[in-house]
Amino acid sequence: MMPGMGRMNPRMMKKLQKQLQNSTEDIDATEVIIKTKDKEIYFSNPSVTSMNMMGQQSYQIVGEPQERGLNGDEEATNIPNEDIELVASQAGVSIEKAKEALEECSGEPAEAIIKLMGG
């Protein structure tokens, strides 16, 4: 509870509630990722609300969080499927080989293609 709210008159309280409703917006998010220095907190299909209060933008995230570490295996899952498909088609290899090459090349498509083509 905010300091002094217990003494606020009902009329002022209604005015604040109306302002809050007018400054709130639902966001159609498909995922939210919060990155810290040692992990990611991932929300799949969250309910996200944006609020503007006194010029400060705030976001409320509601959903089931999942934690992921930032080691090599889990970071490799962040390679976009488009990059994997590009490497596979350009180098003429399977999706699995393309993904392995991208993981070894830190997600760099050009390096992975050159590696796979024997360059």
Provide an overview of this structure.
This protein has 119 residues and is of the alpha+beta class. It has two domains: 23-69, Nascent polypeptide-associated complex domain (Ubiquitin Ligase Nedd4, Chain: W, Single Sheet); 79-116, Orthogonal Bundle (Helicase, Ruva Protein, domain 3), CATH 1.10.8. The chain has five helices and six strands. It has helices spanning 10-22, 72-76, 81-91, 95-104, 109-116, and strands at residues 24-27, 31-35, 39-44, 47-53, 56-62, 65-69. The strands form two sheets. A three-stranded antiparallel β-sheet has the order 1-4-5. Strands 2-3-6 form a three-stranded antiparallel β-sheet, with no helix packed on it. A hairpin with a 2-residue loop joins strand 4 and strand 5 (56-62). Helix 3 packs across helix 4 (95-104) and helix 4 packs across helix 5. The radius of gyration is 23 Å and the shape is rod-shaped. The protein starts with 9 loop residues before the first helix and ends with a helix. The model is unreliable at 72-76 (pLDDT under 50).
